[in-house]
Design goal:
Elements: E1 2-10, E2 13-23, E3 27-32, E4 42-49, E5 54-61, E6 67-72, H1 78-81, E7 82-90, E8 93-98, H2 112-117, H3 121-137, E9 140-142, E10 148-150, H4 161-168, E11 179-183, H5 202-211, E12 214-220, H6 221-226, E13 239-248, H7 251-259, E14 264-267, H8 268-272, E15 285-292
Antiparallel strand pairs: 1-2, 1-8, 2-3, 3-6, 4-5, 4-7, 7-8, 9-10, 11-12, 12-13, 13-15, 14-15
Helix pairs in contact: 3-5
Length: 294
């Protein structure tokens, strides 16, 4: 089993990450997020061979920009024949996942050891430089059909800070029991000062560099009682906030996340498919969670 990332391509230009692909001999599991509203309620998935031949593997149902589906390879040669997977969106926009370049060795796989090694300082310094460059060139962009959204904070926030944040950042719907906002590392300045160090947190930057998203969650008291995401919280607060960092669950990476202050994990695959059973397992996609304050 191998993991790959799906790039959102606008013509020849890569704009962001739009999901992941889990590849097995029997087929693939496609997880999409941030799918444009123009795509409607489903997206077709195509396998592409080295000679350019394409065959349709099936469709992924889309709800609120998210979708997940397991698809079989069919009778066209399977993984050995396929060099990339494409998900057409609209116009020149599509999701592209490269499994291998021509007939060379598979690229862009995400193994447990590779992800741990990427957390070493030299790589993180490179990631920080790339992020700074990306922030300077993509200040405004369309996300989830909300139109152009400015990520610059207003000079002064009103008394209800969360409502101001809702008006400033795009909302996404992953946990039914919580509100969640899509943010970037630089937007962590909205948190209280004690959490500003997260802006340069290596674990946060590494995740954002791979997935191009961070989530800020808001749970109310009744919602927290029924949520599996709740960390060991203290105090009698009726509202709690969590920073969600996307990633793949491995025991070793869980320990690394804990070293960087992330105390919980919630499985995202099951929530995308609206499954009641949400048991965490090795290799599942989800969010490492840290309680924060705004």
């Amino acid at each position: 089993m191998q993991f790959f990332y799906i790039d959102y391509m606008n013509g020849d230009r890569k704009e962001r990450n739009v999901g992941f692909l889990r590849v097995e001999r029997s087929g693939i599991c496609v997880g999409l997020r941030g799918v444009p509203l123009q795509c409607g309620t489903k997206c077709s998935v195509y396998a592409v061979a080295d000679n350019g031949e394409r065959w349709c593997l099936g469709e992924v149902g889309i709800q609120n920009g998210y979708g997940m589906e397991k698809l079989a390879w069919g009778n066209a040669g399977g993984f050995e024949t396929c060099v990339r997977v494409e998900v057409p969106f609209y116009g020149e926009r599509k999701g592209v996942c490269v499994l291998r370049e021509s007939r060379t060795v598979t690229v862009r796989t995400v193994s447990q050891e590779q992800r741990v090694e990427q957390l070493e300082q030299p790589v993180m310094q490179s990631a920080q430089r790339d992020l700074q460059k990306a922030e300077e060139t993509t200040e405004k962009k369309t996300i989830y059909g909300r139109g152009s959204v400015s990520y610059d904070l207003p000079e002064k926030l009103p008394q209800d800070k969360w409502e101001q944040l809702v008006d400033t950042y795009p909302q996404v719907h992953i946990f039914p029991e919580a509100q969640s906002l899509l943010i970037k590392p630089k937007d962590l300045v909205v948190l209280t000062q004690r959490y500003h160090s997260l802006i340069s947190n290596s674990f946060v930057l590494h995740s954002y560099y791979n997935y191009r998203q961070l989530l800020l969650f808001r749970f109310e008291e009744g919602q927290l009682e029924s949520s599996k995401v709740r960390a060991a919280s203290e105090g009698g607060s009726t509202v709690e906030y969590y920073l969600g960092v996307p990633g793949i669950y491995y025991e070793r990476e869980k320990r690394i996340a804990q070293m960087f202050g992330f105390e919980g994990f919630d499985i995202g695959e099951a929530r995308m498919r609206e499954e009641e059973k949400r048991e965490i397992y090795e290799g599942c996609f989800g969010y490492y969670m840290k309680q924060v304050e705004i």
